[in-house]
Design goal:
Blueprint (H helix, E strand, L loop, with lengths): L2 E14 L3 E8 L3 E7 L18 E7 L7 E10 L2 H4 L2 H17 L7 H16 L4 H16 L21 E3 L5 E2 L11 E2 L1 H10 L4 H7 L4 H19 L14
Parallel strand pairs: 3-5
Antiparallel strand pairs: 1-2, 1-4, 2-3, 4-5, 6-7, 6-8
């Protein structure tokens, strides 16, 4: 039975029997891993505080070929989020992010770019706890882009013309855009140049720089995030949480 070691993020844990816990890790090298932490509920557990939600850890585990659940052998804490997670808004935001990761990422399928992006969002949120709505948007958009589900908001989906910088468009049911020349009706949400600026800027900047850019765009952030949540809901087949505190209906 092979042993694996990798850096990981702790996403979720829940009880198993009287003394054990099942823990979900998002790992750097092996993707989503679910494992049993024997004795984790005991007062003097060898795991101690290493299984705190959203912490960064060095994980060591054994895995049998015919089983999805692995056997967790050791967990070494490298970065704790205990203080951050005591804030209800931070806890809600990253519980939402963890839920999306578990919905999108197949078990034992590595995705280093997605791992790095998630870790960068955690670090940025820890440094800027007042910008959690912007972090949600950043994560939602990059999750869709890395998964291949992000629509093209640079051109009209009907005539294929590149949109001008100041052009207002309409959102189609496919979540692609329709220019005013191709839109004979007023159906579909209005997507303004401001919405498209946020949409494209997320893809150009790391999280800390995007937070600075978006600091005065509260309403637009909420509106774009709402559109992205609708795409995510369609992809995973259910409604998603993580509502922005300033959500505005389009």
């Amino acid at each position: 039975m092979p042993q694996y070691e990798t850096e990981s993020l702790v996403l979720k844990s829940y009880n198993l029997a009287e003394a054990d816990r099942i823990v979900v890790f998002f790992t750097w090298e092996y993707g989503m891993v679910r494992g049993v932490a024997k004795g984790a509920k005991r007062l003097k557990s060898r795991f101690g505080s290493t299984l705190e939600l959203f912490s960064t850890v060095n994980l060591s585990y054994f895995q049998k070929e015919d089983r999805e659940l692995v056997s967790i052998q050791a967990v070494e804490l490298t970065r704790s989020c205990f203080d951050d997670a005591s804030d209800p808004d931070f806890l809600n935001t990253f519980s939402y992010i963890a839920d999306l990761l578990m919905a999108f990422a197949p078990p034992h399928d590595p995705h280093e770019t997605l791992y790095r992006m998630t870790k960068a969002c955690l670090a940025a949120a820890s440094e800027n706890p007042g910008n959690l709505n912007n972090i949600r948007l950043y994560f939602e958009l990059w999750l869709l882009r890395l998964g291949g589900y992000l629509p093209d908001w640079s051109a009209c989906d009907i005539c294929k013309r590149q949109l001008s910088q100041g052009e207002t468009t309409r959102l189609q049911s496919s979540f692609h855009l329709r220019c005013s020349n191709c839109g004979k009706t007023k159906s579909g949400d209005v997507i303004t140049p401001g919405h498209r600026e946020v949409f494209h800027t997320v893809q150009k900047l790391p999280p800390p720089e995007f937070l600075n850019f978006a600091s005065d765009k509260k309403v637009i952030i909420a509106e774009v995030s709402l559109s992205l949540k609708r795409i995510i809901s369609q992809v995973i087949g259910r409604d998603v949480g993580g509502k922005n505190t300033s959500a505005v209906n389009l």
